């Protein structure tokens, strides 16, 4: 009994000593960072040892105002401050100009920084992780391909068909769960863009395994059998197998149809991004006459899967939140319906009746404003993380080498100084000359070297979805809430009851 007592006392003392030692280190570290050269490091508080200010950060993510974590510190320390969240000390910028400088990344000072579980799952050649000239080249190839008239025409028709097919049975459903329906539509489109796989067995396997794969993006970075990370890595192996087989078949088919290898095309054509999907575009690069520039097979298969990550959750969440905001703002919905009914009428008069890319992207200005306003308020990607490769000074703030920076988009999008009544869903604000989608204060798709190449594709998908939704249906949304952590979601997947509009 006595021995047990002393063991307990011994254990408690060791734990206490550990806490004291960690706290002393922490105080020293905090002081070190604010002293001498680090006077110019932004002010702030690194919080508790190990956890820093993570608990408050996460707690705010579960409220209706996740930006309150940033706002509180901004009012205490200024627009750029330091904190310690999710296992790392970090400098947070809520300043549009500082964010711009970080994103522009002159002199390649900043590299993407992700939690360990994400880097484990991404693979070292992922477009999301690579830097320098290879990144520039791959980014430009994908961007150029997605801008080709050939791609725009094909994908417009494909998305239209996919949306119409998905919306058709809504009339017979008691509740439509918008979040699920939107996910189904957008995953099909994404897979079409990347590997041209249509509905069927391969699409189902890709969907099942991709869902398993992304569950591990935010988890404990332990790779033992049975752990979340391990299961996700296994799912990625299965994804690589499926995509690998498709890429192999494509290579063989092209090789058989043309002895000179159809992928060995003229450089100018490559720059124009000719091809039917991202696999085609990357395969063209794997046959470059300059051996040093050839993209290896693993690079192509890995990247096709990794490019699904930024596209898979973002577009369906934007669709879902657009429906949510429209349900809460009937005047906006009426105006949106009017504009889209008008286009429909015009198309019925027009002999072909077909819609083109420009119909959705140019001829529906109010719809595009609804999309901009949805992206501003939804903050589906609420900011990006970077790591400084050297000491860098921006607007008088010093970001020391090896520190992480969070360029917080949500803080800029929800600040009164940038948007009047920022919590009001007001698509008309985009008609005012000073509010433009090209400004530093509007960055839902990031900016600079890593500006989202799927920007126009996302706007197109959203416009097609909204068009066919509002011309065909009226709806009443059930009560639901937006959750902001770890990613933006609707608590109940946004159930709505629809009635069709008879024409
Ligand atoms: C509403 C929808 C979307 C939003 C809000 C969004 C947002 C973003 C943001 C903020 C970045 C920059 C990340 C960074 O700087 O580290 C990004 C990058 C990227 N996005 Fe999107 N995205 C969307 C849709 C898509 C789609 C549909 C695709 C697929 C074609 C896509 C593909 C990519 C890729 C490949 C990158 C990496 C670019 C690079 O690092 O060079 N995104 N996206």
UniProtKB/TrEMBL annotation:
Heme binds at residue 452. This is 22alpha-hydroxysteroid 23-monooxygenase. Belongs to the cytochrome P450 family. CDD domains: CYP90-like. One of its GO terms (cellular component) is endoplasmic reticulum membrane. The chain crosses the membrane at residues 6-29. Its main location: endoplasmic reticulum. The keyword Iron applies. It is found in: Endoplasmic reticulum membrane. It comes from the Eukaryota. Keywords: Brassinosteroid biosynthesis, Heme, Iron, Lipid biosynthesis, Lipid metabolism, Membrane, Metal-binding, Monooxygenase, Oxidoreductase, Steroid biosynthesis, Transmembrane, Transmembrane helix. GO terms for molecular function: 22alpha-hydroxysteroid 23-monooxygenase activity; heme binding; iron ion binding; oxidoreductase activity, acting on paired donors, with incorporation or reduction of molecular oxygen, NAD(P)H as one donor, and incorporation of one atom of oxygen. The keyword Iron-sulfur does not apply. It catalyses: (22S,24R)-22-hydroxy-5alpha-ergostan-3-one + reduced [NADPH--hemoprotein reductase] + O2 = 3-dehydro-6-deoxoteasterone + oxidized [NADPH--hemoprotein reductase] + H2O + H(+); 3-epi-6-deoxocathasterone + reduced [NADPH--hemoprotein reductase] + O2 = 6-deoxotyphasterol + oxidized [NADPH--hemoprotein reductase] + H2O + H(+). PANTHER family: 3-EPI-6-DEOXOCATHASTERONE 23-MONOOXYGENASE CYP90C1 (PTHR24286:SF254), CYTOCHROME P450 26 (PTHR24286). It is an enzyme of class 1 (oxidoreductase).
């Amino acid at each position: 009994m006595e021995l047990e007592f002393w063991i307990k006392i011994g254990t408690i003392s060791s734990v206490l000593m550990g806490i004291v030692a960690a706290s002393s280190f922490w105080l020293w570290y905090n002081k070190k960072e604010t002293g001498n050269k680090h006077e110019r490091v932004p002010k702030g508080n690194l919080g508790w040892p190990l956890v820093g200010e993570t608990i408050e950060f996460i707690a705010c993510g579960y409220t209706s105002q996740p930006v309150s974590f940033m706002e509180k510190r901004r009012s205490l320390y200024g627009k750029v401050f330091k904190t310690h969240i999710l296992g790392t000390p970090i400098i947070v910028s809520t300043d549009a100009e500082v964010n711009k400088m970080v994103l522009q990344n002159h002199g390649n000072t900043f590299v993407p920084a992700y939690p360990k579980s994400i880097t484990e799952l991404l693979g070292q050649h992922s477009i999301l992780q690579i830097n320098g000239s290879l990144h520039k080249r791959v980014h430009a190839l994908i961007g150029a391909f997605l801008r080709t008239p050939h791609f725009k025409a094909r994908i417009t028709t494909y998305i239209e068909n996919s949306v119409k097919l998905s919306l058709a049975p809504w009339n017979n459903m008691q509740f439509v769960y918008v979040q699920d329906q939107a996910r189904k539509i957008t995953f099909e489109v994404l897979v079409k863009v990347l590997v041209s796989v249509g509905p069927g067995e391969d699409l189902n396997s890709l969907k099942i395994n991709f869902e398993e794969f992304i569950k591990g993006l935010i988890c404990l970075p332990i790779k033992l059998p049975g752990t979340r990370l391990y299961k996700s890595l296994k799912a990625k192996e299965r994804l690589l197998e499926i995509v690998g087989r498709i890429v192999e078949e494509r290579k063989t088919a092209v090789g058989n149809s043309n002895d000179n290898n159809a992928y060995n095309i003229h450089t100018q054509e490559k720059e124009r991004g000719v091809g039917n999907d991202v696999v085609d575009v990357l395969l063209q690069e794997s046959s470059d006459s300059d051996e040093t520039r050839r993209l290896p097979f693993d690079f192509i298969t890995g990247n096709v899967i990794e490019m699904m990550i930024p596209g898979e959750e973002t577009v369906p969440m934007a669709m879902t939140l657009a429906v949510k905001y429209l349900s809460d703002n009937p005047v906006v919905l009426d105006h949106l319906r009017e504009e889209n009914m008008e286009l429909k009428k015009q198309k019925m008069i027009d002999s072909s009746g077909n819609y083109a890319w420009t119909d959705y992207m140019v001829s529906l200005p109010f719809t595009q404003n609804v999309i901009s306003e949805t992206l501003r308020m939804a903050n589906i990607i609420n900011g990006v993380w970077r790591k400084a490769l050297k000491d860098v000074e921006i607007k008088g703030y010093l970001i020391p080498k090896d520190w992480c920076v969070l360029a917080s988009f949500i803080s800029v999008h929800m600040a009164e100084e940038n948007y009047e009544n920022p919590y009001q869903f007001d698509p008309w604000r985009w008609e005012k000359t000073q509010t433009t989608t090209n400004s530093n204060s509007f960055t839902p798709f990031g900016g600079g070297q890593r500006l989202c190449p799927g920007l126009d594709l996302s706007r197109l998908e959203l416009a097609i979805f909204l068009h066919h939704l509002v011309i065909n249906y009226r709806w009443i949304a059930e009560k639901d809430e937006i959750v902001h952590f770890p990613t933006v979601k609707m608590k109940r997947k946004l159930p709505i009851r629809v009635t069709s509009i008879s024409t």
